[in-house]
């Protein structure tokens, strides 16, 4: 196995560590594309004791913001209200490379703040984007499902403060 170089990392607490593997660093545009195409993402915040809390979500990107949905009640909704600083990680194109003790991948990491969306038009547009992405074949039934589920569903908007992207593809 090859040891990776140990470049100096950022110590700015408002930003993540600088990327050590500059040769794998990708553009912001690449990162947005990963978020628009990853099969799911992991949303992280902290709990009331300051411990990490992470959960898989189905994100959709709409007009420069990232949207996810949740039930009105439960741990995720409670913690997102109380701890709006979040990190979202999306990964795609994962291919194990056992002969190299490595993996091909494309990833994006977003830091930002999350807030509940209360405007009905924005909620519906975000839910439509999520359904279009994850259940396009069932889009004809969106209005029926919306009428049944909108009152039970929260929509959350992540406002991005930082996005980084990294990939190891086809080396």
General description of the model:
With 171 residues, the protein is an alpha+beta fold. The protein is 24% helix and 40% strand. The chain contains four helices and eight strands; from the N terminus they run βαββββαββααβ. It starts with 24 loop residues before the first strand and ends with a strand.
Task: Give a short synopsis of this structure.
The protein is α+β, with helices and mostly antiparallel strands and 171 residues long. The chain has four helices and eight strands.
Radius of gyration: 18 Å
The global form is: globular
Report the major sheet.
8 strands, antiparallel
Helical element count?
Answer: 4
Average of the residue pLDDT scores = 90
Estimate the helix proportion, in percent: 10-25%
Number of strands: 8
Beta strand %: 35-45%
Give the CA-CA distance, first to last residue: 16 Å
Chain-wise SSE layout:
Blueprint: E1 25-26, H1 28-37, E2 41-46, E3 52-57, E4 60-62, E5 65-71, H2 75-82, E6 85-97, E7 102-116, H3 120-134, H4 142-149, E8 153-168
Antiparallel strand pairs: 1-8, 2-3, 2-6, 4-5, 5-8, 6-7, 7-8
